[in-house]
């Protein structure tokens, strides 16, 4: 399986994603510069963390206009799995591939720490290898991860089960104290209506090896491998 | 022609920066300042024949890029004398 890791000017978690996919998961991976117009036949796309285009204007606001984003949109509309991590999630929001927007963290501080997130839904290409309700210990590193959408939009997201990751305590309780940034309904990650586009603020790619504190994030990337192989089997039938 | 575009968070959206600035002002003794909303300000130099045309272009720019309609609203002022003022 081949992952495309999109590189915007200012991306800085592109190598983390590439390393996790290639060296930990043992899958094929390729960097794709934002000026490219092809994803090179990839089976899944990762929009990595960082500060694309310096976060000028708003996080992700300029990255939306990068040439590769047209191809990412086409890939997503065709059902291809797309994962936006941190700044990549912010890009997906600005591009309108996921609903809502990010505000400054309630603390006004850049939050850099390990948090716990509960997997709420396992029927997406990036959670299919997780157990329902599984709590993952994954780091966050962001200043603008305070997820916001109008109350009626949030209500609809809950009804359609598009909230797939939520900030919780270590034992999975959704509390205000476990919410690191003020996100509405403790939302840490979402999927699209078609469920193939996923965005989350925590960094699963930085939690793939026990030597660096946690390997819980591996389940997110392994899910993509499982999902793509299931799609291939289904297509072959 | 110059368009001034003011982008602020919608009233329904919590503004942690504005709240922090308000608290700092209270610490300085400005109890009369009841609330602060922080926003962004843009000056667009627009090649347009009429104020209406400049306003239309500025509004499009605000809708498409300068503001994020999910969380922000915007207000536009057109200054038809901007070039003369700058030349003085």
Number of strands of chain B: 3
Overall structural class of chain A, as computed from helix and strand content, comes to alpha/beta
Q: What proportion of the residues of chain A is helical, as a percent range?
A: 10-25%
Task: Work out the helix count of chain B.
Answer: 3
Mean model confidence by pLDDT of chain A: 96
The N- and C-terminal alpha carbons of chain A lie at a distance of: 19 Å
The main pleated sheet of chain B reads as: 3 strands, antiparallel
Question: How much helix is in the residues of chain B?
Answer: 25-40%
- Indicate the CATH topology of chain B: Mth169, Chain: A
Oligomeric state of this protein: heterodimer
Q: Give the overall pLDDT of chain B as a whole number.
A: 91
Task: Spell out the helices and strands of chain A N to C.
Answer: EHEEHEHEEEEHEEEH
Could you name the CATH class of chain B? Alpha Beta
Describe what you observe in this structure.
The complex is a heterodimer of chains A (237) and B (88). By secondary structure, chain A is an alpha/beta fold. Chain A has a single domain, classed as 3-Layer(aba) Sandwich (Rossmann fold), CATH 3.40.50.880. In chain A, 24% of the residues lie in helices and 24% in strands. Chain A contains five helices and eleven strands. The model of chain A has no long low-confidence stretch (mean pLDDT 96). By secondary structure, chain B is α+β, with helices and mostly antiparallel strands. Chain B has one domain (2-87): Phosphoribosylformylglycinamidine synthase subunit PurS (Mth169, Chain: A), CATH 3.30.1280. Chain B has three helices and three strands, in the order E-H-E-H-E-H. A three-stranded antiparallel β-sheet of chain B has the order 2-1-3, with helices on one face. The radius of gyration of chain B is 16 Å and the shape is elongated. At the A-B interface, loops of A face helix 1 of B.
